[in-house]
Every structure is written in C-alpha cells, then in structure tokens.
Write a sequence for this structure.
C-alpha cells in the first residue's frame, strides 16, 4: 500500500478503536484478545491479530443479551434508527444506529447516487415497501440530502405501481433486478411502452443481477431508455459498493468508508488479483454499531484499475455468489447467480425454478421454465 492510504486507513481504524474500546462490550473482548485496546501499530498487526466477526456470532449475542446484543457502543436511548435483516438465513438480526452513524450510512449511499449521474432537481421512485429491513431506506434519505425528489411507491400492486411510474416519469428507479424485469412483463401484458416513462437509470440491489450481463441486458432492453447500475450493501454493514455505467462489468467499493479485504474462505489468506475470495469488511465510521473484520460470505474477484492507487481495488462481476449458497453437483461448484445468467440469455423465459435432488449418490439438477405466451 502507498504510505498515505495505509496511514489514512490505520488512523481511521484506530479512531474506531478509541471510540468503542471502553463501552462496546462485544468488541472490547475481541480487542483484548488481539492485545489492541490502545489501537493497532500497523494494518498487518490488525490483519494478524484481530479476530473475525460472523453473522451467527452476532445473532447468538442478541439471544444472550436481548434484544439488541452487547455490540452497541452507546446507551440504547441514544439510538434513533431501527432496522433488521430480512431473516433469509434464520433469525433476523436487529441493527440500531444513532444520528451520527446513520449519517455515515447516508454518506456511503451518496457514492451510488453520484455514480448514477444524479443531480439536484431530478426525481427517483422507490419501488419498495418500506418495512423494517434496511432495503432502500438509506437511498431514500440520501437522495433528499442531494436535492433529489424522493417518491415512495410502496403499498401498491405492480400494475398500479407501473401506472404511477408512467405518470410521474422519474429520472431514476430503485428496485431489485427481478422486480425491474417483473415490471417489464407487466408492461407487455398491459400494452404499455416503457419508453414513455423516460427513466434514465435503474439502480438495482438486494440480489445478484445488476452485474450479470444477461440480466442487465434484459432490463435495459425492456425499459429502453434506462441504464442499469448495480448497488450492493447489507443492513449490518451499510452501502458497500456501486456499479460503473461506463464499465458495467465492474463494481467499485467505497474504500473511503471501509477497510476491505478479500480472503480465501478456507485458508483465510489474501487472494491474488483475479482470484475469487470472500469479502471481509470493517466499517470505519459507523461508531454506534460497528463491524470489525466482518465475514460477509459474499464471493468476489478483486481487480486493480490503472487510474486507482494499488491499495484500492474494484470487483469484477460484482457479487459472484455466496460462500454459503454454493452447491456441489457431481464435483462442480454451482452458484445460483451462474444458473440465472445462463437462463436469462435464452429469449422468451419469464420465470424459472431450479430443483436440486441430492437424495441419491449423484446429485441431479432440473430447471423449470415459464415461457412467454
């Protein structure tokens, strides 16, 4: 790493340690284990001595110390935001933020808005029901801070939401990739031309798709005037990365807000450029509810860019899959996102379902397709 960036990251990391060492019981134990209650001497010291944090560890901690766990830095009365994970991997994880930490989340999301080309005075529709999981809450709040008119579109059926979009003509839409495709199908069924919506960019997140060329092409061809920009984040971590409209195969990490590592999930050693590994994140400004060396389980492929210093890296292909989603079929590692990429390359496929039968010695994969017409 260049000395300037390494020192900046180390300074941010040690500021985090000073903020949390005394009052955050969860991380005080880990810092004691690392011998770093006073901070880290170098980033190598941090990598060698600081233990990882896992989602199951956090969930167990909330069971042991209900309802919020022992990883809050401040008294509960100081927290103003409540979110929880979607619960797809089990018991939902509750996450709280105070005003300062929530602002850090919003600043992280603004990187995505800037990557989309958004300007004050434009508008964005959020095709999302605002429940307790973080979803596009941060996108909504950060948009208003940038002068973007934020239009909620929850509480509607898809046909009504589509008509709402055609009436409002937003510059941007925020939704999941599959929902963007769903609206394309509904528009075709109802005879609407999505070019009339005049959407400039669709920011997608919540699932793989925005960085899968076949899915991105389906969305852009269906919406006609809109480009697709991928976004990646998690409730417990915040907004992590954003796509690149000029180089859509790349996703850029928000290095100013995170310390990022990519490690082999089996050996915990750093991977080389172009190799696949697990993304490990440390939040450098979310002091009220920090995460240090968090195992995201997201599989990524780091690549360096000529315009960036060597310590920064982008992700080729975005989130490639999850370490805990991989299925081994007859000796082949199979990821759901790879299956979807192949299926979406076939014209006329609307919906699909993948079934994996592992009842016999040889696993079998079957795919059910719903075809247009």
């Amino acid at each position: 790493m260049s000395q300037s960036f390494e020192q900046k990251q180390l300074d941010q990391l040690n500021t985090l340690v000073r903020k949390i060492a005394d009052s955050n019981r969860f991380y005080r134990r880990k810092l004691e284990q690392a011998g770093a209650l006073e901070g880290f001497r170098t980033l190598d010291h941090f990598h060698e001595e600081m233990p990882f944090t896992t989602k199951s560890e956090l969930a167990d901690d909330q069971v042991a110390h209900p309802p919020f766990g022992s990883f809050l830095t401040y008294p509960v009365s100081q927290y103003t935001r409540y979110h929880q994970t979607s619960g797809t991997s089990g018991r939902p994880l509750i996450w709280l933020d105070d005003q300062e930490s929530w602002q850090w989340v919003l600043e992280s999301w603004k990187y995505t808005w800037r990557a989309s080309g958004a300007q004050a005075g434009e508008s964005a529709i959020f095709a999302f029901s605002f429940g307790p999981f973080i979803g596009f809450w941060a996108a909504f709040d950060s948009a208003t801070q940038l002068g973007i008119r934020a239009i909620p579109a929850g509480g509607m059926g898809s046909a009504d939401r589509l008509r709402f979009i055609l009436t409002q003509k937003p510059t941007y839409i925020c939704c999941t990739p599959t929902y963007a495709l769903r609206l394309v199908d509904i528009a075709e069924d109802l005879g609407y031309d999505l070019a009339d919506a005049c959407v400039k960019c669709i920011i997608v997140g919540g699932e793989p798709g925005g960085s899968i060329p076949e899915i991105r092409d389906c969305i852009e061809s269906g919406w006609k005037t809109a480009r697709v920009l991928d976004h990646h984040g998690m409730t417990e971590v915040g907004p992590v990365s954003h796509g690149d409209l000029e180089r859509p195969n790349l996703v850029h990490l928000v290095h100013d807000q995170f310390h990022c590592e990519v490690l082999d999930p089996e050996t915990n050693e750093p991977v080389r450029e172009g190799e696949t590994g697990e993304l490990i994140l440390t939040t450098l400004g979310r002091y009220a509810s920090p995460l240090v060396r968090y195992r995201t389980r997201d599989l990524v492929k780091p690549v360096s860019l000529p315009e960036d210093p060597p310590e920064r890296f982008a992700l080729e292909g975005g989130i490639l899959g999850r370490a805990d989603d991989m299925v081994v079929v007859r000796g082949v590692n199979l990821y759901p996102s790879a299956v979807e990429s192949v299926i979406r390359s076939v014209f006329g496929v609307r919906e699909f379902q993948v079934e994996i039968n592992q009842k016999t010695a040889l696993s079998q994969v079957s795919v059910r397709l719903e075809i247009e017409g």
